[in-house]
């Protein structure tokens, strides 16, 4: 989706990453977008408004009181004319005010009064990002339909290393292409499985794995951003449902198999869930009491959800995942060919399970396509962009 002709408000808050916003502004203008920059007072301590005025070709919005509209309502009119508001960088303070619905400066007022989509690119110290209040605010914003871009992980200006870096301008530019139009999956139905499954041994114990569900949830969000109607069949997780996604909760592999089949015909099926290969035969009706004797469990195979869907005569475009601990390329490609999949995503389980970032390799009929380590939402968007051309071949 081209950005040409799109009207974008670029919000800039206080933080060293404000210098990246200047490059982002330049890239947006180069892509043909009309950009109006709105800055907080703190942002002006890092980059001057004159810089953004020169790059955007328009005066910078700074204060509710410095109003250039005849009726004194520039803080309302600016958002009405925009196709999207992007706040990059979005500081921890601004995320907090946004989550609370505050309107105590011009940028916050624009966001609250908007009728267009809103996206934020967080940037802050890694401990500020990990803090419980920040995570609550981010979850609330996601539930409110705000798109969250990043943050990335890496070396920070404070000298520490970890998640909290603002995404690079080029990455944000690519993400905005999906946010400002109908999207590359408009009109399509996408079914995503995510998280672990839990196979009971008795009423209090069970077999499971370390999957957090973060990759599957990120893919569900990316598919929604791209315009698809998305159903997320999720095993047990602690994650918030991405805005606009319909979620079906399950526990066991058999539950997930039944839920996927019940969804009927889909255009795309992305099997991200770490489904248990085996379940216990004969679940104990009561808690098994500890004793000195060894305990033996008889395990039986669970249904292969992806194989069953891929083998249908009217099979959707199927994407599989392979989490391996060694020989990734050989085992992932073998799985793809065995299940006759057009696309399979491979990763090393020890580097991915439970983490916020990952490094992936995409396997298709044209070979291997590495995706460098990044946060999972960034990777999810890259995966969506990769699969669309394969669907159209």
Largest sheet: 8 strands, mixed
Shape: elongated
Radius of gyration over alpha carbons?
23 Å
What CATH architecture of the largest domain do you see? 3-Layer(aba) Sandwich
SS-based class: alpha/beta
Helix content percent band:
25-40%
**Fold-level CATH name of the largest domain:** Rossmann fold
Give the distance, in angstroms, between the N- and C-terminal Cα atoms.
Answer: 19 Å
Number of strands: 19
List the total number of helices: 14
Number of domains: 2
Strand fraction band? 15-25%
The fourth-level CATH homologous superfamily of the largest domain is: CoaB-like
CATH class of the largest domain: Alpha Beta
Unreliable stretches (pLDDT < 50, length at least 5) are: none
The strand line-up of the biggest sheet is: 12-11-8-13-16-17-18-19
Mean pLDDT over the full residue set = 89
